[in-house]
Specification:
Largest sheet of chain B: 9 strands, mixed
CATH architecture of the largest domain in chain B: Alpha-Beta Horseshoe
Strand content of chain A: 25-35%
Oligomer: heterodimer
Number of strands of chain B: 19
CATH topology of the largest domain in chain A: Rossmann fold
Low-confidence stretches of chain A: none
Mean pLDDT of chain A: 86
Number of strands of chain A: 33
Largest interface: A-B, 28 and 50 residues
CATH topology of the largest domain in chain B: pyruvate-formate lyase- activating enzyme
CATH superfamily of the largest domain in chain B: tm_1862 like domain
Structural class of chain A: alpha+beta
Radius of gyration of chain A: 27 Å
Mean pLDDT of chain B: 91
CATH superfamily of the largest domain in chain A: P-loop containing nucleotide triphosphate hydrolases
Number of domains of chain B: 2
Distance between the termini of chain B: 27 Å
Helix content of chain B: 25-40%
Largest sheet of chain A: 8 strands, antiparallel
Distance between the termini of chain A: 63 Å
Low-confidence stretches of chain B: 207-222
Number of helices of chain B: 15
Chain lengths: ~600, ~400
């Protein structure tokens, strides 16, 4: 085995949102001098504007650090960043598979959260060495001893040697680096063996083509290597290899144990499938590395351009986003009310919001989003099983034998005083209790089976508001269950607006149907005529409200000095109207299509 | 032939709803009016060439022209007479507020041939007047009307406002009835508009960002302001009442005895050219619109240096499309509407072709009436005209 790989450490950081992961990563980069203080832009790794604004990590990032340890050797530390949100569990599993160790960062005030726990389990599955770090110990309300106890009780890790740190003030940073060197095992893998490189992410660059982010498990790769994708058999010539320092830096060669990138003028990002193994076409490996399970979209919604002429631009933008985000899926669909658009699948609600926001900001698209839905399985009289991801495609009642809805196993961690509140919430949300245990003296883990559609509805907001923000949630799909579901349609001025249809449990249908029309009455602006709003199940009207006709909309004065100003005012009003969707003779604001999410049970 | 507007940017104190440029005399340094008049004279000399055939009407507005002292008023009126002489029959309006009018001033104004007076009454309720920062009292309003009549003004306009804070139907009706008792030839009824940057706007409007979908929208703090329905009822009641008294609603907010329509304002609405003189004055000649700089010293200094007192940001070359749009949005506020032939003469196209899409879209809805060579808005919709007028911009 080559000596060099003995001085490589590959690790990632597991932490809940807000527990200080990005700040800690920045501090490590700064300490090892990968960037000077002057060059540091706050939170280097979260490079998307959106990530920095929201304080979350969405995409994986990697950075190589050079650390002179106390033993006199210089170590190459590769940090692979991980997203901390439940939607991106899949991305976490990818980065963990490329590492030998992980820092478990826990907030000294908040303690362990549900998503951290889920990610710790992923790390343990991958046999990673875990180093516990208790962060934010500079806060006056920090309780490191309690948190240590929690780590031992909940995870079963020995926390006696947990590092007490403050990424903000720099306490414990050196100790963390030392511990990585001594605790995380160096990568195994022979650099003389045939090449095996695991693609853990890929990115499209207009000049370089599809770039593969790789962990070299065995062998070596350099410019000119004829590489081969083991799943497709396609071959490409490597044009450059490099490392993240933290910006991309070209090097001569990548060897077993290293983390870096490979460019090979690959036109199509589909040819750099995440989880695939790259080998040497002239000296191929026999078997590929174990890949990842594919990410399955769980939440679906319709995306429609407000201006029909933007359809092609929306398609191109989705295609571009998909290049860097394989978990986003989309296919064309047509709505009677909204025209041509796309049905898109997302990992979860946050993922959905992020995609929408990126489309609006980065691609300057003006869109209408329909309320999110899950995939229902419909058994028909003809014996077919249909997967319905759009409520308006639900067959009529006379053709349906039964409908099944997706169920998730939800894990909720919460201070014990909120157990009652959580149980009440889960009951309202049609949950089934399966287990409860005390993870520490004052914290409880609850496990429930919940319909995914209820989580998509307003579960997260309710969870946070009923527990003053202390509860955390993690969930995974556990199966399908037959349920008594009905479809509610909405009529505006007598015309059905298919994009407003939604599927709901029969017991809740009247309430939601009524609340929705009430909500819509507040959202739909007054027109020059009266607009009845009805919600119906089949042919039966279950609720009705009316938007009364507009009575006053006029400029009071309009003389020589104000003509330009008043004309511009009308232009502005008109532009505001353009952001609405005209269905029949009714102008519907974008908010209306999400209104169903804003009603409380 | 353009009309002439002369702006007098001074008030005793600005009203809380006013977004026009005006100096409060209480806060202005002494001598500011002289600076203004010196600048104004130079501008008049310069601008004579813009009206080689003379001007079609005169409107002296503000601000409050009547806050000027007799000496200053005389200077102003003499200047106009000298540089823009007008025949006796030409409509010459001055605007003013009760409380600033004395018998001597009225006599003076009269002696310079001003034949129409527009008085900013706003309300015959002292409580409402003080609620919107008006400095005059109802008593002063009554005195002013009597004074103007006594001096021989036979064409009098009264401005009234509805939708004021705490105004109810009864108070509004009382104001209309009192106004009618003076038999004015002309009445302007204005709904209160909350304009950005005014004290009333600050008081009643807050911008709130709705958390959901991050859309920004303006929420009215309407607790004290009459709501849309009440404002509509006030307006509709007044329209009916004035019609019954023999007034014609010849424009959305303007009512006149037959033959007493304001010629100056009709010019704006029919798309005629106009000269606006004084700080902040707006002119529109041959499809170019420009605005004078507002600040009085800067205005005078530019003129003294032989330059034009232009506000660069207020300059606009109107495209044919914009001109046509303005013709429509202004003309459709008139009872008569837009004359098809005048449109064709001015723009070389039939408006029914230009706006075919819009007219067809509303074809079945009884909104536009085309007859006798004019297109006008069904009066039923004049109070919700914006949503229709938008179609033309």
């Amino acid at each position: 085995m080559a000596q060099a790989s003995q001085r490589i450490r590959n690790f990632s950081i597991i932490a809940h949102i807000d527990h200080g992961k990005s700040t800690l990563a920045d501090r490590l980069i700064e300490y090892t001098g990968a960037l000077s203080k002057r060059e540091m832009e706050a939170q280097v790794l979260d490079s998307m504007d959106l990530e920095r604004e929201r304080g979350i990590t969405i995409k994986l990032q990697a950075v190589q650090l050079s650390y002179p340890a106390k033993d006199g050797e210089i170590y190459q530390l590769n940090l692979i960043d991980t997203p901390g949100h439940v939607d991106f569990t899949y991305e976490v599993s990818r980065s963990l598979a490329a590492c030998e160790g992980a820092l478990l960062v826990v907030d000294a005030v908040q303690g362990i959260e549900a998503q951290t726990l889920a990610n710790v389990y992923l790390a343990l599955e991958n046999n990673l060495e875990l180093i516990s770090v208790i962060n934010k110990i500079d806060l006056p309300s920090a309780e490191p001893e309690r948190v240590k106890q929690e780590i031992e009780d909940v995870i079963g890790l020995d926390a006696s040697e947990a590092i007490l740190a403050s990424a903000k003030t720099g306490i414990g940073i050196e100790e963390i680096l030392e511990r990585i060197v001594t605790m995380v095992p160096p990568p195994q893998g022979e650099d003389q063996a045939p090449l095996k490189a695991l693609i853990f992410d890929s990115k499209f660059d207009a000049y370089k083509g599809a770039i593969s982010y790789v962990r070299i498990v065995e062998g070596r790769v350099s410019k000119g290597t004829k590489m081969k994708m083991m799943s497709s058999g396609k071959s490409f010539e490597v044009t450059e290899v490099g490392v993240f320092a933290p910006s991309m830096r070209i090097v001569d060669e990548l060897k077993a144990g290293q983390v870096g990138f490979i460019c090979a003028s690959i036109k199509n990002v589909k040819d750099t499938q995440v989880g695939d193994t790259i080998t040497d076409a002239e000296n191929p490996a026999d078997i590929p590395l174990p890949g990842y399970r594919k990410a399955t979209p769980m939440v679906f919604c319709g995306l429609y351009p407000v201006e029909a002429s933007d359809y092609n631009r929306l398609r191109d933008s989705l295609e571009k986003l998909h290049l860097n985000d394989a978990s986003l899926i989309y296919e064309p669909e047509t709505s009677i009310a909204l025209g041509f658009g796309f049905r898109c699948g997302f990992l979860g609600l946050l993922h959905m919001e992020i995609v929408q926001e990126r489309l609006e900001r980065e691609y300057d698209l003006n869109m209408i989003t329909t309320a999110p839905s899950v995939i229902y399985k419909v058994n028909t009289l003809k014996g077919e099983v249909l997967s319905i991801d759009n409520p308006s495609n639900l067959p009529t009642v006379d053709q349906i034998v039964s409908i099944e809805e997706p169920i998730v196993k939800a894990t909720i961690l919460v201070p014990s005083e909120y157990v009652g509140a959580i149980m009440e919430l889960n009951q309202e949300k049609r949950g089934t209790y399966s287990n409860m245990d005390y993870v520490s003296k004052s914290r409880v883990r609850l496990i429930y089976e919940l319909p995914l559609s209820e989580i998509v509805f307003d579960y997260f907001d309710q969870l946070k508001s009923r527990t003053k923000g202390y509860a955390s949630l993690d969930y995974e799909l556990s199966g399908y269950k037959e349920t008594d579901l009905v479809k509610i349609d909405v009529l505006l001025n007598g015309e059905m607006v298919d994009a407003l249809s939604f599927i709901v449990h029969r017991a809740k249908s009247y309430n939601r149907g009524r609340k929705l029309v009430e909500k819509l009455r507040g959202i739909i602006p007054r027109h020059m005529f009266e607009i009845p709003i009805q919600s119906v199940i089949g042919n039966k009207v279950i609720a009705r409200e009316t938007v009364s006709a507009m009575r006053k909309d006029v400029l009071s004065k309009c003389y020589g000095g104000d003509i330009s100003r008043k004309r511009k005012l009308l232009e502005k009003q008109k532009a505001g109207k353009k952001r609405m969707k005209q269905v029949g003779s009714v102008e519907i604001p974008q908010d209306a299509f999400m209104a169903v999410l804003q009603i409380e049970d | 032939m353009p009309s002439l507007y002369v702006h007098v940017p001074f008030c005793i104190q600005k009203c809380d709803y006013c977004a026009f440029y005006s100096h409060s005399l209480m806060e202005s340094p002494k001598g500011l009016i002289s600076v203004y008049l010196e600048g104004l004279e130079i501008e008049m000399v310069k601008r004579q060439k813009d009206a080689p055939q003379g001007v079609s009407s005169l409107f002296i507005g503000g601000g409050t022209p009547t806050v000027l002292t007799e000496t200053d008023l005389e200077r102003l009126l003499a200047m106009i007479q000298r540089y823009f002489p007008m025949d006796l029959g030409v409509e010459k309006t001055m605007e003013g507020n009760p409380g600033t009018l004395t018998d001597e001033k009225i006599q003076l104004i009269r002696s310079f041939g001003i034949n129409r007076f527009s008085l900013g009454i706003q309300s015959f309720s002292d409580q409402l007047l003080s609620a919107v920062g008006r400095v005059h009292t109802v008593k002063q309003a009554r005195e002013a009307i009597r004074g103007l009549r006594k001096a021989g003004f036979k064409n009098l306009n009264l401005d009234l406002m509805f939708g004021l804070p705490a105004q109810d139907m009864r108070i509004w009706q009382a104001s209309i009835e009192e106004a009618l008792s003076y038999s004015p030839e002309h009445l302007s009824l204005y709904g209160l508009m909350l304009e950005e940057g005014t004290p009333l706007y600050e008081q009643y409007v807050t911008t709130t960002t709705l958390a959901f979908n991050k859309s920004s929208s303006v929420i009215l703090q309407v607790d004290q302001l009459p709501d849309e329905d009440l404002q509509t009822e006030m307006y509709e009641w007044a329209v009916k009442r004035l019609r019954h008294e023999g007034y014609r609603q010849y424009e959305t907010s303007n009512f006149a005895r037959p033959g007493y329509e304001c010629q100056h304002n009709l010019g704006y609405w029919r798309g005629a050219d106009y000269l606006g003189i004084g700080p902040g004055g707006v002119s529109c000649l041959n499809r170019v619109r420009w605005k004078n700089i507002e600040e009085v010293h800067a205005y005078k200094n530019l003129l003294f240096k032989g330059q034009s007192p232009l506000d660069k940001s207020g300059q606009e070359v109107l495209s044919l499309r914009v001109c046509m749009a303005e013709r429509m949005i202004l003309g459709l506020r008139l009872e008569e509407g837009v004359q098809l032939k005048a449109f064709e003469n001015d723009f070389g196209a039939d408006l029914r072709d230009i706006y075919r899409d819009v007219l067809e879209r509303y074809h079945n809805r009884d909104i536009f009436i085309i007859q006798g060579g004019y297109i006008c808005l069904n009066p039923k919709y004049s109070f919700v005209a914006n949503s229709i007028l938008q179609e033309f911009v």
